[in-house]
Write a structure and sequence with these properties.
Oligomer: single chain
CATH superfamily of the domain at 128-225: 2-enoyl-CoA Hydratase, Chain A, domain 1
Number of strands: 5
CATH class of the domain at 128-225: Alpha Beta
Structural class: alpha/beta
Low-confidence stretches: 29-48, 105-113
Number of helices: 6
Helix content: 25-40%
Distance between the termini: 163 Å
Strand content: 5-15%
Largest sheet: 5 strands, parallel
CATH topology of the domain at 128-225: 2-enoyl-CoA Hydratase, Chain A, domain 1
Mean pLDDT: 74
Radius of gyration: 58 Å
CATH architecture of the domain at 128-225: Alpha-Beta Complex
């Protein structure tokens, strides 16, 4: 007589002692893994109880290779352009050096300027006439040059007269006034006659300093007059009263 398995308690499914109703084992798995699953073991546990090997990480992508571009082809005429730039730079540097040299040389020459002696008409060497040019703008440099010439005249007892060659549009008020009073001082101390010989232009400050001379000689084409460096003040009050202007 075959014994029947005991009935399950109420609310529980039928008993499966042989595992007939157990789910099939995973592909490639063993019966022990299926039994372990049936017995409630962890799903990833093996029969010996050790953990399975970790999954193989995905291979990393290699870094991108750097891009190398071929050098640009040389432009046509690059050699000629390089020669031109070299020559231009050399000429420019030489010009700057030459200008600096001339500037320094003119500074030394200006500081050591001496009167120039020229014999126009031979005569008594003990009686000479000094000729001092006043050309260009009348400024501080013109005053310094004029002062050096006047000192040379004062130191030469053979100078018996002074001729000023004036060819200037004028200049600053102070410089023109200094030359004007220096001429008066020379006339007073040396008792020298002073003659002004006007060139093509003797206006403003040039006309002002010419007024210190004893005589003025001008060319027919000389433009002169208009002492712009001096602004006179006129009192027109009495003229206004005479004509009834209040």
């Amino acid at each position: 007589m075959t014994s029947m398995p005991p009935s399950p308690p109420p609310g529980q499914g039928p008993l499966d002692p042989r595992g007939a109703f157990a789910p099939p084992p995973p592909p490639g798995g063993s019966a022990s893994q299926a039994a372990g699953s049936q017995s409630g073991a962890p799903p990833h546990a093996t029969a010996s109880g050790s953990a399975p090997p970790p999954p193989t990480p995905m291979p990393m992508m290699p870094p991108p290779m750097p891009m190398y571009y071929p050098p640009a082809p040389p432009h046509k005429g690059s050699f000629a352009r390089a020669i031109f730039m070299t020559l231009a730079t050399s000429i420019f540097g030489l010009s700057i050096a030459l200008n600096v040299y001339l500037l320094i040389l003119s500074g030394f020459a200006g500081g050591a300027e001496s009167p120039r002696r020229t014999t126009i008409l031979s005569g008594n060497p003990s009686q000479t006439v000094a000729v001092v040019p006043l050309n260009g703008l009348i400024d501080d440099d013109a005053v310094n040059r004029f002062e050096r010439a006047i000192r040379a005249i004062e130191a030469d007892e053979h100078v018996k007269a002074l001729v000023l060659e004036v060819d200037t549009p004028g200049g600053t008020v102070t410089a023109s006034d200094q030359i004007y009073h220096r001429i008066l001082q020379l006339k007073h101390e040396r008792k020298l006659p002073v003659v002004v010989a006007m060139g093509s232009l003797a206006t403003s400050g040039g006309y002002y300093l010419s007024c210190a001379a004893d005589e003025i000689v001008a060319q027919r084409t000389t433009i002169t007059g208009n002492i712009g460096v001096l602004l006179p003040r006129y009192n027109l009050s009495r003229l206004a009263e005479k004509h009834g202007i209040e």
